[in-house]
Amino acid sequence: MLVLVDAFFENIYPLPSYAFLHPETTKRRCRDAQVHRALASAVCAIAALHMGRDRQLASRWIQGAEQSIWLHLGSPTIPRLQTLLLIIHFRMETGAFQRAFMLTATAARFAAAMRLNYERPDLDPISREVRRRIVWSLKIMERYFSIGLPEFELCPIESIYLEFPSPEEQFETKSQGENGTYRLLVRLETIRRDVMKLNRSVAPLDESLPSLIKLIRHHQQSLSDIGMVMPEGTHLTETQTLGLLGSPWLPRRVLMHISWHQAHCDLNRILLSGYPEAAPPIVLEAVDPADLAAGERQCLEHATSIIQILTNLNQQSTQRQCLEFDTAICAYHAARLVLFISRFGRDPDRPAPEFAASRADLCLTALKRFFPSSALVAPIIEELQRCIGVFSQQQDDLTSFKLDPTKEPTRRDLESQLSAAARARQRLAIHSLLRQAEFSDGDDDEEHDREPGFIEQASAQGLERGGDFVNQDDHRCNTRASGHKSTASLASDGPVCHTHNGNTEVEASDWQVNTGSQSSPSIEQMATPLLSWFGPQDWDWLSSRGT
Fold first, then answer.
1. Domain edges within the chain
2. What is the pLDDT of residues 395-454, one digit of tens each?
3. 271-281 exposure pattern, b = at least 16 Cβ within 10 A, e = fewer
């Protein structure tokens, strides 16, 4: 297992969403058998999964670690929360999106109960930094389900009273060459979150917004400020990429540049008339045409830069690189933008269709190489392939490629019941794990309609419960067996624990902010619940331009 622990910190830890463990402390405790057993199991499971080792063994490890969390649900600690974050990552990576989504809410409760969203000046620097990184990693993880939707924001930025992460050189004494990249990535994450909130607030408007350009320029200035302190500037050249190949921090350095460009794309696509994420026509009609043209140029410039970074990395790398999921998300949006601008852009110097298709193909090739078997990225690759196919086959007239409504009548029916404003505001992209989870609308709760429980699925794959990894003190909790067949197994819904010590009560306001009146309709006012986001395929915008 020590080999897997070392492999985790060598290959997985550099990913920004995994940066919440202190390498030296964790490895030392693993060697001395002093680490929380569930945490060690989760670390090894993640390493085995990424290395292509025995997947069944990794699943047993993660199942045992999750069982330990359920047995101590009322007693959150830092090691248990770190374990839970690794469990969520494993569930995400293996396609268990529904379970991962629910566990993420539990992780947010753990963090709130321990008040990790506040600084602790009385602690040593390493402990303070670990607390910060747990919260920021949770924030990164949260955006993979949805971003900019307040009803699903578990730990709002407004309730995080923490400094940004410290440079790796201060956190890990043996580290060199990270140069504060993780800190900049978190700063970019907050800006992209604010931009998406702006995007979603603009989408349902039925009147002009005179302050739109002012808001956009405010975010542009924030991005410019970050660009001023980025190591080696804002443009990652081919030579710089080659120099990063031997660095353990390549995933962070590459994503820092890509995320900076993506933030510009997210911001300027609001001005891209006809684009799915653009402001409504009534808003854009009041915008100066020069600003609209500048927005289109910015979208094309930054989207092309993202594709070029990935292309350089793919061409320079002699082996597959382990990259953050967000890298694939940015690549997908960059390809969509280039294809859209080539077809519908207003600039006479916009790229030719052949060039746009070739850029998208390069992007697709890189994703297939760097994410060959990822359950997270597979939908992105499939959707991008469809986009390229539609674009290449029908450059003049794509009306025949309209989605057949008979293929998914339930989703279409649900979508048609939502107001246009709600659809625009709550639209989730193909890479949203909340969209992929496909939660029920709450009507199919009869026993015979339920999906198989986790244990039934695990048994079908030949997996075991993994009880060997439960701590000895876990058995102090009492469990009750449910009378329902679907919840008979321990891990299906987790045991009911009676913990008589260490319980921490936390008020609901710990993570919540008084945001005032909401522009979206309430659940009672809507024909269907808010979980009905199933709209047109993401390539429908290629078929006919929005008006």
1. 1-173+440-511, 177-408
2. 655 444 443 433 433 434 333 333 444 444 445 555 555 455 554 555 555 544 444 444
3. bbbbbbbbbbe
pLDDT of residue 34: 84
Question: Is the C-alpha dihedral spanning 488, 494, 496, 500 positive or negative?
Answer: positive
- 118, β-bridge pairs: 161
CA separation (Å) from 394 to 7, 336, 354, 359? 47, 16, 12, 17
pLDDT score of 71 more than 80: yes
pLDDT of residue 481 exceeding 70, the answer is no
Q: Which residues contact 512 (CB under 8 A, 6 or more apart)?
A: 156, 159
For residues 348 and 391, what is the distance between their CA atoms, to the nearest angstrom?
19
Nearest to 196 by CA among 255, 145, 233: 145
Neighbour tally for 380: CB within 10 Å = 24
Task: Reduce the DSSP state of residue 305 to 3 states and report it.
Answer: helix
Tokens 């201060």 correspond to: 170
pLDDT digits (tens, 9 = 90+) for 504-518: 444 434 454 444 434
| CB 325 within 8 Å of CB 144 | yes
In terms of Cα–Cα distance, which of 130, 176, 123, 110 is closest to 25?
A: 130
Tell me the sheet residues that pair with 161: 118
Separation of alpha carbons 439 and 322, rounded Å: 30
